[in-house]
Design a protein that fits this description.
The protein has 442 residues and is mainly beta. Helix content is 13%, strand content 48%. It has eight helices and 33 strands. The strands form eight sheets. Strands 2, 3, 5, 6, 8, 11, 12, 14 and 15 form a nine-stranded mixed β-sheet that branches.
Amino acid sequence: MKEKLTNNFGLKLLSLFLAYLLWAGVINSQDPRETVTFENIPVAIINEESLTAKDKIPEVIEGETITVSVEARRSVCSSLTRADIIAVADFEKISVAESVPIEVSVRGYSEPEVEIVRGQNQFMKLSLDESMSQEFRVKIATSGVPETGYVTGDMVASPNMITLTGSKTQISNIKEVVLVVDITGISNERQVYGIPVIYDKNGEVVSNSKVSMNTSSVRVNIPVLKTKNVKINVITTGTPAEGYEVGNISYQPQSVQVAGSAVELLLLGTEIKAYCDITGATGVVEKNFDISSLWNDDLTSLRLVDEEELAVTVTMKAYEEKVMGITPEDIEIFGLEDGLKAEIVKVGQSQIRVRGNQAKLKETTLKTLSPYIDLSEHTKQGYQVVYLCYDGDLSGLLLQDMMVRVEVRISMEEADPEAPVNGDNTTEDGTEGQTEHTGTVY
């Protein structure tokens, strides 16, 4: 019996092999091996401090993510997820060519149960740059709007300067550091904390993984001010050129919103005055004013909410003209010596023209002008030529006809038979008679 069992050993071994093939065939038909691919697997970095300790900042050029394919039985493949694929780049293994090998493994499995058919022998390519630190001012931006009737004052960040550290290339490309503060519905002073955002020169956000800050957060004090709508009043100073008056004054804005403490807003009053000098002007005067310079320097908390500049245009208007007819009967005679008489024979023109503003011209008449001639220096008989004078109020008026000729005939006055014949000009009380007049000659 024993011989029968040992004499067929080869046959038995063949039977065993055939049984295995049969078993493997059954297994493969029920749970075959297959390949599954995972894309965008992030590559973890370890031992980065080995480079930063040498004042070198690595920047990944290629290999931040990789694609991995694994082969395993269908039952295993169906249970795998991207989280099971581990990709690691050890910066201590950096080569002279500045590349780091990427080691790939599958969590919970080893070969040959799970075979990595794609992903091994890949490299993360680096660019090593010098480490650099630089200070940047923290700019404050706001989002939202305060409660109606309030605005925020000048906000101050603490710290207002922060130090950023990164590669020389990265730091040199930074444009600004901005902290956005939400002021929606705010009506009283408060403090907030936030993390600034770093922007490069293209306006893109710089990742905190590439640049580090020397502070974890920044505190911002937000002052809140009340607002008040105040009118603007433009007042002209000086006198325009002769023959001109102020015609029209226009300006923008006509009112502004001012923010400040309640006390200083009360002291400001209801209007802001702007004084515009028009001395010697004949046409249009245009001036711009810094509105914040128009109130008292002691009101230090006040500031403008919107408008910053006042634009003023003052248009000069030429005087209007009035024409009045004049006859010899309208002219008085003064200064004639006793014993002489005078008759106005001819006036050089029949009209008198004056210019002035509308209100002044309205009240101007020949009577208010009081035209006269002065014959105090004309004692000879015969025809004499004198020039018209005016005894009225000429302020604010311009005479267009400055030298009006008046032709006068002077003759002896006929004697009065009842008058005393003593050859002198005396009154009954013995005093000498005089005729006086003071006027302006034009």
